[in-house]
Amino acid sequence: xxxxxxxxxxxxxxxxxxxxxxxxxxxxxxxxxxxxxxxxxxxxxxxxxxxxxxxxxxxxxxxxxxxxxxxxxxxxxxxxxxxxxxxxxxxxxxxxxxxxxxxxxxxxxxxxxxxxxxxxxxxxxxxxxxxxxxxxxxxxxxxxxxxxxxxxxxxxxxxxxxxxxxxxxxxxxxxxxxxxxxxxxxxxxxxxxxxxxxxxxxxxxxxxxxxxxxxxxxxxxxxxxxxxxxxxxxxxxxxxxxxxxxxxxxxxxxxxxxxxxxxxxxx
Length: 267
Hints:
The chain is of the alpha+beta class. Helix content is 18%, strand content 33%.
């Protein structure tokens, strides 16, 4: 998962809205979103190389999590590194609070390559909790107040051109509607325009690669946006999760629409 927008407003008509793109090598095997046979409480895509996931929910336990990599091309993997996809999976299947889980991960932060992790619970309710932790941030775990958040491959709300643009797109997609529309949110995620050259971040990659990765939606034969996911919850527990997959040319392929009932599970 390489770019995500979250609107977190407990008590609002739509207290939790997510729109996110997963960018990955096309050759890396993965399954589309589904309820896992071995852990049927999880609704998520699945990385078939390391076994975890990049974004998922546990509707029955009203838990949500997503992870992005922290871009640091000169930094190698730690010895015997734990897959960052386990950070999402373990929260979804666990019973720790948001705060306690992030504290647990902080205590073993060096076992992972750089990551950003967002986890939440009871997101359809007034007592909703959303937390953030990056093992590349000096601040430690944070419980987030209501607001709008964007995340890519740097720290939360880092003003990269692509995150700033996504926030603007999402504001436009949401401000005039009484309810979220999946097509509008997916369209906001499908912006292939690169950032202007003088605004692109310098993360240690070649200028050509920085340009390619500076768009919200990435198209290239080897690495690009594999899927877009939109998700929202309502105070009555109803919700929706939509996943749209794409091929190496950025063309839409499979789409899955899951109606949700937070507090229950459908299989």
